[in-house]
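Hi R.,

Here's the input for the guanosine-5'-diphosphate complex you asked about:
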Amino acid sequence: MKYQDTIAAIAVSSKNGSISVIRISGDDSLKIVSEIFFNAKNEKISLESCQTHTIQYGFIQNAKNELLDEVLVLIMKAPRSYTAEDVVEIQCHGGAFICQKILELLVEKGVRIAEPGEFTKRAFLNGRLDLSQAESVMDVIRSKSKVALENSLSQLTGKVKEKIVSLREMILEDIAFLEAALDDPEHISLEDFSSVMGEHTKLLREEVKYLLDNSENGRIIKEGIRTVIVGKPNVGKSSFLNCILRENRAIVTDIPGTTRDTLEEELMIGQTLLHLVDTAGIRNTEDKIESIGIEKAKQSVKEADFVICILDSSEELSEEDKNIFNLMRKKQGIILLNKSDLTSVILPEQIQKMTEKKVLPFSAATGEGLRELEAYLNERFMLGSVSYQDEIYITNMRQKQALYETAESLRNLSESIEAGMPEDLYSIDLYNAYESLGKIIGETVEDDIVDKIFKDFCMGK
Ligand code: GDP
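And here is the predicted structure with guanosine-5'-diphosphate in place:
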């Protein structure tokens, strides 16, 4: 392995926590920390001569021998460390100020401040993580729900990699056979190859399709069920949002059409993460600003996993209400008859005749119906029957793009086979599929893309 300069960053630093961690990685990390570390007897010791995976107790002192902090120093020698390089972690007491001082001291000794994601990038470059694992590190950090976390963790342990490697192996075998046969037609016959290839391609396409279909579930697990709230102005959309969030984030107002843009919120209902989108009132309008909001609302419904349609039960059903109904016809959703605390003009039975969706009396003012709605959503989206641990969900956009490319190459391949094209033409599509699958685990990713991916990480990771 070539020489790696030594980098450092504050890895854990919560404002109110009692311990912070400074992580140092690179060829000189042990040597450099030895220069500022003193043991309990106030003696300098060489951390290089300490055993790996041990903890040293002591103090950090600056060049003037002033005490900065009492610390624990963790030693993890290459390759058994996060980056596969020599790593030292200093656990100190301090808040931001002391951490900063220790970091400055390290820089004086020749350490460079790590760029965002640089530790994980090194882990990848040193072959300790594949790219899908490295990306899942970021997902683990950002996980919003337990299920999302489990999914990221399963990626981190290499489930995606395992699957992709096995698909690539299948392709590579076919490439190898094809190349060999083209090189040595006398001894290796391609007689049945196209039918074998046809079978293989079918299987590969099914696998890739499965991964792509599952990525939809993956998105839901990671980002929540995209739930769009629709209804004409003044039916109580903002009030509903406040009611379900039990806090006053959305501005509640009784002037029609003042929710001009979309408001987005996230909340957990049981095990399910809802990503709520409040749209501007959907109605036909001449007002330019408002009609932009309406376009957005229509778009939001299109992109929704679930639509919550709100009607004002204290008023007659209008044309606008009916238009909104049409908008959500093909979508999964529920209809709330809001303002049930007032005298009802619209009855649930009347609406139920018009739709197969559940119709629920509701009051954003009193909270009536909220329990029932939550129970409904929870039951509806309890993906509990799916085993998260064993499934593979590709949730990352970059990885998904690579899967689409693979699917495209395999489709071309199928077409060539069906059209009875000569076998030597297969190899281009086979290679392309092999390469695009490789992108998922970082086997065929250009350096600049690698840089971009790791820039998205937070510092100290
Ligand atoms: P939006 O335009 O659809 O977002 O509607 P708002 O949430 O701004 O509500 C419009 C008006 O209806 C406000 O005056 C709310 O106080 C009132 N409102 C909303 N929900 C209820 C409800 O369940 N009962 C009653 N009585 N009034 C409500």
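One thing worth noting: Residues 193-223 form the longest helix (31 residues).

Cheers,
M.
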